[in-house]
Amino acid sequence: MTVPLLEARDLSTHFPVRRGLFRRESKAVRAVDGVSLTLAPGETLGLVGESGCGKSTLVKTLLFLEQPTGGEIRFGGEAVTAADAGRLRRQAQIVFQDPYTSLPPRMRVAEIIAD
């Protein structure tokens, strides 16, 4: 069995919301909550979703650009911590697309994917 290149188990990233007169922490925004994924060598991961659904936060959390609230990230079968995330960042690349030029508005989603 091939060892997954990248694996996330029950990954979460929550951001505190401070409200009130004394700016107490009262709630948290759950930007990423309980995400699990496995990426095999040679595979490419594409995240698609509505604006504000947590796509960028998930990728930043996978690369430890955001601190995960919970869960586990493994790279090449080994657990990754914030202290050794540099080796993961050297092997990964984030590509953000401009939605106004990347998706033709006259095509249906099924046609875009098939293309």
Give an overview of the whole structure.
- This protein is an alpha+beta fold and 115 residues long.
- The chain has a single domain (6-114), classed as P-loop containing nucleotide triphosphate hydrolases (Rossmann fold).
- It is built from four helices and four strands, in the order ββαββααα.
- It has helices spanning 55-62, 86-91, 99-102, 109-114; strands at 6-19, 24-39, 70-75, 78-79.
- It has a four-stranded antiparallel sheet.
- A hairpin with a 4-residue loop joins strand 1 (6-19) and strand 2 (24-39).
- It starts with 5 loop residues before the first strand and ends with a helix.
Keywords:
115 residues; alpha+beta; Rossmann fold; four-stranded antiparallel sheet; 4 helices; flat
Explain the layout of strands and helices:
Elements: E1 6-19, E2 24-39, H1 55-62, E3 70-75, E4 78-79, H2 86-91, H3 99-102, H4 109-114
Antiparallel strand pairs: 1-2, 1-3, 3-4
Q: Return the string of H and E elements.
A: EEHEEHHH
Q: What is the general shape? A: flat
Strand order of the largest sheet: 2-1-3-4
The stretches of 5 or more residues where confidence is low (pLDDT under 50) are none
Q: In DSSP terms, counting alpha (H) and pi (I) runs of 4 or more, how many helices?
A: 4
Say how many strands there are. 4
- List the domain count as a whole number: 1
Q: Tell me what portion of residues adopts beta-strand conformation.
A: 25-35%
Rounded to the nearest angstrom, the radius of gyration is 17 Å
**Class, according to the CATH hierarchy?**
Alpha Beta
> N-to-C terminal Cα separation, in Å?
32 Å
How would you name the CATH homologous superfamily? P-loop containing nucleotide triphosphate hydrolases
Task: Please state the average pLDDT score.
Answer: 84
Largest sheet: 4 strands, antiparallel
CATH topology: Rossmann fold
